[in-house]
Design a protein that fits this description.
- The chain is an alpha+beta fold.
- It has a single domain, classed as Nuclear Transport Factor 2, Chain: A, CATH 3.10.450.
- The protein has a six-stranded mixed β-sheet, with helices on one face.
- Strand 1 and strand 2 form a beta hairpin.
- Helix 1 packs antiparallel against helix 2.
- It comes from Propionibacterium freudenreichii subsp. freudenreichii.
- InterPro entries: NTF2-like_dom_sf, SnoaL-like.
- Pfam families: SnoaL_2.
- This is SnoaL-like domain-containing protein.
């Protein structure tokens, strides 16, 4: 049970919770962005790379414009002192109306404050 209170697990769980709502709620988008370190790097499932605060803002604005409804389920575990793995599945609706489902995993590193330093999205 102690692992559930680990800052890395808490941060990644909140990231996935907010991923379901941040496309429709500016406050949730701001909170989601606040989970990342200022110099964080994200690699998307499409291979897009976003660096730093402005890069992440641009990435998520584009991402949520493309994906207007998302519903995630996930399982989070620590794989090292600062490494987190999240196995996930998502069902969603794209901006053009088509529905989709994907599964995969994210690999993340977190800094000493529990902020996401790197996040790599790997679809199955």
């Amino acid at each position: 049970m102690a692992a559930a209170t680990n800052p890395g697990i808490t941060t990644l769980n909140r990231y996935f919770e907010l991923s379901n709502t941040a496309g429709q709620n500016q406050r949730d988008l701001d909170e989601l962005l606040g989970l990342f370190a200022r110099d964080a790097e994200l690699e998307s499932a499409r291979g897009e790379i976003a660096n730093g605060e402005e890069g992440l803002k641009d990435f998520f604005r584009t991402f949520f414009a493309r994906n207007v409804e998302l519903h995630h389920v996930w399982n989070t575990e620590m794989t090292g002192p600062d490494r987190v793995r999240v196995d996930w599945a998502v069902a969603g609706r794209a901006a053009d109306g088509h529905v989709f489902a994907l599964s995969g995993h994210d690999d993340a590193t977190v800094d000493q404050h529990g902020h996401i330093q790197t996040l790599t999205v790997r679809p199955d």
